[in-house]
Amino acid sequence: MTRFSSTVHWLQGTFNFDSKLEAQNLIKVLASSCQDEFAEEGSIKRGVKFSCSFRSTRKIILAVNYPILHAQGYGWLSIPGGVFDAIEFDSIKVIFETLSGLKNWKCTRIDCALDDLMKKITPRIVYQEALRSNFSGFRNKPVFDEREQRWRSPSYSLYSSLYTNSDGNSTEALNVDFGSRTSNKSWHCYDKTAQSDGEKDCTRMEVRFRDENSHKIFDELLTCLNDKKVFYLHLGQIVAGAICFVDRTDEDKHLSRLEILDFWQELLDEIGSVKYPVPKKEVILENSVEWAAKQWETTLAILYEVCGLENVMIFCTEMIANGQSRLEDRHKAIVKKAKLEGFDLIKFYNLINSR
C-alpha cells in the first residue's frame, strides 16, 4: 500500500473575456470535466460586485461582469476541494490548461494537499511538536513588533471541529493551523476521516497559497501536466517543503544543522520536498486604494448620515494627519513612485466601480 497521496484541493482566480460566449464555453468545460451541472444565479459580491453568477451542484462558483461597450468582461472562479477529490487527473489537466488559456488569468489561491493514508502523522503529534517550537517555516516563538508596539504570538493554533455524519452522529476532530488563513502561505493538518464522513480515511496535510505565490505554484504545476506521476509527486513535495519539523533541543545550532524529527524524515525519505520562499508582500498603491474603497464606503456613508459632511471631513483630515506621522521610508517610496507615474485617484476609483 502506498502511504501518501496528493491532490489539488482548491483553485481560485480571476480573468478577462471578450464575449458572453467565452464565459458560456468555460462553464461547458467545467461541467464536462467535473461531471457537474450549473445553475444561473443573481448578482454576487466577491471583492467587487458581479452582475451575474453561476453555481454548480459541487459548489463551483463562477461570477462574471459581461463586456460593456469597450470594457472587457471580468470573471472570478472558485473550485473547492471536494471537486478535486472526486475527479481524475485527465480532468484536472483539462481544467489547468483551460484556465491558463484565459485572457489575463491570475490564480489568486491554490491549496495543495498531501494525505497520510496510514495516519502515522496526526494533528496531535504535529501540535505536540509545535508546543516545543520544533518546526521551521513559520514563526515559532513570540516576536515583538517594533512598528506596532505589540507582541506577535507564535503562528500556530489548535482547535477542534464538530463534524456531523450522514447518520446524524457527531464526531469531534483536532485541527492544527500554521500561519493566518488570510496570509500568503498557511499550513494545516486535520483528520480527513472525520471531515469527509469516512469517505477518505487519512490525515490530511495542506498548504494554502494566495496572491502572487499561488500564481507561481499554478505555473509550476502547469509544467508537470505531461506526466501524471510527476504532477502528483510535485504536489506532495510542495506540501512537505512548506514546513519542517526539527529538534530544537540544542538552541545553539543553526537551523540548517538541526536534526529533522523522525516522523517527518520518514515522509521526506519517501517523497522529498521542494521549497517556494514566500517574499514579503509588496505594498501596491492600487491594491491599497481598492481595499480602502471596499472597506470604507459603507462606514463613511453611515457616518455621513449620523454626523453630517463637515464632521466626516474633520474625521478624515485627522486620520490623514495621524497616518502622515507614521509614514516610513517604504511608504515614502510609494508616494514618490505614484507621483512620477501620475497616479489619478478619481480615475482609478471610477475604474473600480466599473468592474
Task: Give an overview of the whole structure.
The radius of gyration is 23 Å and the shape is globular. The chain contains 12 helices and 14 strands. It is an alpha+beta fold and 355 residues long. The strands form 3 sheets. A 10-stranded antiparallel sheet has the order 2-5-6-7-1-8-14-13-12-11. Strand 5 and strand 6 (61-65) form a beta hairpin. The chain has 3 domains: 4-112; 113-271, no CATH class; 285-354, no CATH class. It has helices at 20-33, 81-86, 89-100, 123-131, 192-195, 211-222, 228-241, 262-271, 285-307, 309-324, 329-340, 345-354, and strands spanning 4-17, 38-41, 44-46, 48-50, 52-56, 61-65, 73-79, 103-116, 143-145, 150-152, 156-164, 170-178, 185-191, 203-210.
Proportion of beta-strand residues? 25-35%
Helical run tally: 12
Count of the separate structural domains: 3
Largest sheet: 10 strands, antiparallel
Q: Which percent bin holds the helix content?
A: 40-55%
Number of strands: 14
Order of helices and strands: EHEEEEEEHHEHEEEEEHEHHHHHHH
Stretches where pLDDT is under 50 for at least 5 consecutive residues are 147-152
Q: Which class of secondary structure composition applies to the elements?
A: alpha+beta
Global shape: globular
State the strand order across the main sheet: 2-5-6-7-1-8-14-13-12-11
The N- to C-terminal Cα distance equals 51 Å
- Overall pLDDT confidence: 86
Rg measurement, Å: 23 Å
Oligomer type:
single chain
Question: Could you name the key traits of this structure?
Answer:
alpha+beta, two-stranded antiparallel ribbon, 12 helices, 14 strands, 40% helix
